[in-house]
Amino acid sequence: MFQKILIANRGEIALRVLRACKELGIQTVVVHSTADSDAMHVRLADESVCIGPPPSRESYLNIHQIVAACEITGADAVHPGYGFLSENAKFADILAAHNITFIGPSGDHIRIMGDKIEAKRTAKRLGIPVVPGSDGAISDDKEAKRVAAEIGYPVIIKASAGGGGRGMKVAHTEADLEVALQTAKSEAGAAFGDDAVYIEKYLEKPRHIEVQVFGDGAGRGVHFGERDCSLQRRHQKVWEEANSPALNAEERSRIGDICAKAIADLGYSGAGTIEFLYENGEFYFIEMNTRLQVEHPVTEAITGIDLVHEQIRVASGAGLSVRQEDIKFNGHAIECRINAEDPRTFAPSPGTITHFHTPGGLGIRVDSGVYSGYKIPPYYDSLIGKLIVHGRNRVECMMRLRRALDEFVVDGIKTTLPLFRDLVGNPDIANGDYDIHWLEKYLAKGE
């Protein structure tokens, strides 16, 4: 097992990893920018190293500074959390060159899954169902029209190196295609430095279903069930739950087994999430995230297994602590992402939290790194906390969530708490009857 882990992240995920390390008896080092000197994870870590000014590129994305912090403190492993350098193959390779363990998959696997076109090819080879579309990048309008005609309209154009909805455009007719293609390429080039795009069939009312997987790097793979992340705004997840209200036990087992086998065959090491669009009983691969997900706590709630512990075990060479038959699913869990944003306009709302009170009681978990008097900096993601609620079934979980949201108090800034109080009382949400477009339509009605 590792002696000392450096946590290359900030906020609630840095605190989440720190807690796991302490439970395992591992010394912790955190890095931070000057804007995060008073952050909770900095206060609680065994050691902390300031690695630069507030801009991420000069601190949390500064590989040289993070490696130097490892060498100064004697850290023998790095946990990247999510975001920042968590899916940066170059970072994983550089750490390996310095004999520092990256708590995550190999650089090669990060590269494969980071390229959306190569990821789709790999998924198809591994037996994972994929969305009909182009075999690779689209070279020109003529090829785009041919592919679109073959798979049928509407189609969606996506950036090969994309994420977060950038470089993504829908064409409902051939007349829309040329403009959509050029716009997507332009956005992709500006956002990612790579204007390669590909085309897929556009599904009208799909759910977003993702399967949590783990591999030991030596040919074993398991799945921890699925999560439903269909409530999204601008392709950003807002509300996640496990298990999905849309799946039955047979579907859950089928897609889980397919994903676990694929991970084993790939020789993958550590945590990963295979994401699908689901419509009319069929799953269609869209991407794989080679890291811990923001929404991992709902999986922990229904399985009772600490996924960060599991990451550290696998990276240390100890292997997986569970077999597939050991993983049982108990009850239902929902996570709400609490952001420092205006609940109507979603404009960021940095500032000082004057009062912070979290809910409690059976089945309630709050992952947050903020506290009363904490000043939220304007430089980073607006997520300030996650409310995770678990119940014996979905009805109990929803009732408990309603109560927890009523107890949650964050004063001094605007947050998305009012949005969740509205959602928990909506009949469609109560019935689990929603798709990936539902939330944006709901928000549009309120404007």
Automatic annotation (TrEMBL):
Entry's EC annotation: 6.3.4.14
Pathway in which the depicted protein is active: Lipid metabolism; malonyl-CoA biosynthesis; malonyl-CoA from acetyl-CoA: step 1/1
Domain Biotin carboxylation, residue spans: 1-444
Domain ATP-grasp: 120-316
Pfam families listed in its UniProt record: Biotin_carb_C, Biotin_carb_N, CPSase_L_D2
Superkingdom, natural source: Bacteria
A single BP term in Gene Ontology: malonyl-CoA biosynthetic process
Keyword Calcium attached: no
Catalysed reactions, semicolon-separated: N(6)-biotinyl-L-lysyl-[protein] + hydrogencarbonate + ATP = N(6)-carboxybiotinyl-L-lysyl-[protein] + ADP + phosphate + H(+)
Gene Ontology molecular functions: ATP binding; biotin carboxylase activity; metal ion binding
Presence of keyword Ligase: yes
Record key words, sorted: ATP-binding, Biotin, Fatty acid biosynthesis, Fatty acid metabolism, Ligase, Lipid biosynthesis, Lipid metabolism, Magnesium, Metal-binding, Nucleotide-binding
Enzyme class: ligase
InterPro entries per UniProt: ACC_Biotin_Carboxylase, Acetyl_CoA_COase_biotin_COase, ATP-grasp, ATP_grasp_subdomain_1, BC-like_N, Biotin_carboxylation_dom, Biotin_COase_C, CPAse_ATP-bd
Function: This protein is a component of the acetyl coenzyme A carboxylase complex; first, biotin carboxylase catalyzes the carboxylation of the carrier protein and then the transcarboxylase transfers the carboxyl group to form malonyl-CoA.
Subunit record text: Acetyl-CoA carboxylase is a heterohexamer of biotin carboxyl carrier protein, biotin carboxylase and the two subunits of carboxyl transferase in a 2:2 complex.
Protein name, per record: Biotin carboxylase
Organism lineage string: Bacteria, Pseudomonadati, Pseudomonadota, Alphaproteobacteria, Hyphomicrobiales
